[in-house]
Amino acid sequence: MKKFLFLTIAIFCFFGISNAQPRPADKTMPAVSPNAPDSYETRYEGGIFGSSAKEKGTLRFDDTNERIVFYRENGKEMFSIPYASLVTVFPDSKQSVPQSGKVIGALPLPGAGLAGLMSKSTKYANLTFDDPDVEAKGTASFRFKDKAMLLTFIGKLGEKANMKARGDAYYRPRNPSIY
Predict the structure, then answer these.
(1) Could you tell me the pLDDT band of residue 123, with boundaries at 50, 70 and 90?
(2) C-alpha distances in angstroms, 120 versus 44, 55, 147, 150?
(3) pTM (2 decimals)?
(4) Helices and strands, number each (H, E), in the chain
(5) Which DSSP category does 24 fall into?
(6) For residue 19, what pLDDT is reported?
């Protein structure tokens, strides 16, 4: 009886694996709302040469000069990235346990370890670009408060920079004549 059960499970597993087919990447352009805002409250996390401090501010689209601009909280421009320099634009998130959960989880009380299960998710927009001033690639990271605004920003930026969609991300295809 055990051999029959093992053989049956093995057959189901074999057919389950052998019939699996890879799914092609979704390259359709997601619809971006025409009412999407032109500025987004965010926090710069790093990645731009010469701008290493984390700072709260606003990302704004400057369509006249075809660039995305980050303004500090006081309204002064900190840096900009031209649309043509963008290589990839993609969302990212990180899960972490807040400090209070770590402290409570370390207490020698029954059930205190469950506090370590508390987690918070942080949403980021990562912009990979070619920096023409220093002839190097860079990745700027911006922290958003919610996922909806993050995806709206990425969709609008990808559209304005004439990039191709792949899932929630956008990329600039390589020049096929070089390869």
Answers:
(1) confident
(2) 19, 20, 13, 16
(3) 0.66
(4) 3, 9
(5) P
(6) 54
What is the C-alpha to C-alpha distance for residues 76 and 57, in angstroms, rounded to an integer?
9
What confidence tens digit (pLDDT) does each residue in 125-145 have? 888 888 766 677 888 889 998
Token pair, residue 24, equals 């092609």
Task: Tell me the CB-side half-sphere exposure of residue 106, using CA atoms within 13 A.
Answer: 7
* CA distances to 46, 94, 150 from 54, in Å: 6, 17, 18
Sheet holding 86-96, edge to edge: 77-82, 67-72, 55-62, 39-46, 136-144, 120-131, 86-96, 169-171, 164-166
What's the token pair of residue 80? 């900009």
Can you say how many angstroms the Cα of residue 142 is from the centroid of all Cα atoms in its chain? 9
> Residues 41, 58: contact at Cβ < 8 Å?
yes
Q: Which residue has the tokens 């799914």?
A: 23
DSSP string for residues in 102-114: HHHHTSSSTTGGG
